[in-house]
Specification:
single chain, 275 residues, alpha/beta, Cytidine Deaminase, domain 2, 8 helices, Sulfur carrier protein FdhD
């Protein structure tokens, strides 16, 4: 579905989601010069039928997953088949992800044009009205996720985050089965972007989304709950805290929401069967 021909541009060669820089390390003893790896962050434009809808600051990796996941989680598409084709083009200041979608979806997009400009970790920047910012959340069915499965997935997460291990600057989103096995992961400098990439990859892999949970290396915001519920995912586990609106949205949707997932402990903020 996605045609990517960027290899002629050295900015986007394989491994372009990280780069080396010269640094001076100070501490005890004399300062010393070293090479360090940093995560690449650049503007990624989401363009539908020639109309620029959003510019996200993101890591230029797995952009085919990002395009599909963003389009579905933001309600631009209601079915993956409505994305006819997609091409990534290198432009002067970043990348342009140019998608061709069904005419009916383009008309709906124009009706609720958000025209956001996303910064790292920000999914609602530029929303045109307060009413448009809080959209109805889709109802989901929470799967039976055990405490043991949460802890198992959490213990394995770091082994599925190579960009974070090398740069210390990325978020991870993982799809886990009900035994706590990590089946799929995606990374990005933005937590919403990492989740969108994961959602797109899950759609492409035709994973059964009723029999697992999402684990994210960040806090659980309104947007994280909304995006996961948009695809029918009934359980979200976050390494950090949820926000008040995330809890409200999880309750409205019937989603299992767990936060502060750390080694040996986690906090259940909403478990539907306990109501």
């Amino acid at each position: 579905m996605l045609a990517v021909d960027l290899m002629t541009d050295e900015r986007f060669a394989k491994g372009s989601w990280q780069t080396r820089v010269d640094v001076r390390r100070s501490g005890q003893g004399d300062p010393s010069l070293h090479e360090d790896y940093v995560a690449v962050e650049m503007p990624i434009a989401m363009v539908y039928n020639g109309i620029s809808h959003a510019v996200m600051m993101a890591t230029p990796e797995n952009l085919e997953d990002f395009a599909l996941g963003f389009s579905m989680s933001e309600g631009v598409l209601s079915e993956p088949s409505q994305l006819y084709d997609c091409e990534v083009k290198a432009v002067e200041h970043g990348l342009s992800v140019e998608m061709r979608i069904a005419t009916s979806r383009l008309a709906a997009l124009k009706e609720r044009r958000r025209n956001l400009t996303g910064r790292t970790g920000c999914g609602l920047c530029g929303t045109e009205s307060l009413e448009a910012a809080i959209r109805p959340v889709r109802e989901v069915k929470a799967p039976p996720v055990s405490d043991r499965a949460v802890q198992r997935a959490l213990g394995a997460l770091q082994h599925f985050q190579p960009l974070q291990a090398q740069t210390g600057a990325s978020h991870g989103a993982a799809w886990c089965d009900l035994d706590g096995n990590i089946r799929l992961t995606r990374e990005d400098v933005g937590r919403h972007n990492a989740l969108d990439k994961l959602l797109g990859a899950l759609i492409a892999a035709a994973e059964p989304l009723h029999s697992g949970f999402v684990l994210v290396s960040s806090r659980a915001s309104y947007e994280m709950v909304h995006k996961s519920c948009a695809l029918g995912i009934g359980a979200l586990v976050a390494v950090s805290a949820p926000t008040s609106m995330a809890i409200e949205q999880a309750r409205a949707a019937g989603q299992l929401l767990i936060g502060f997932a750390r080694n040996g402990r986690h906090v259940v903020y909403h478990r539907p069967e306990q109501e």
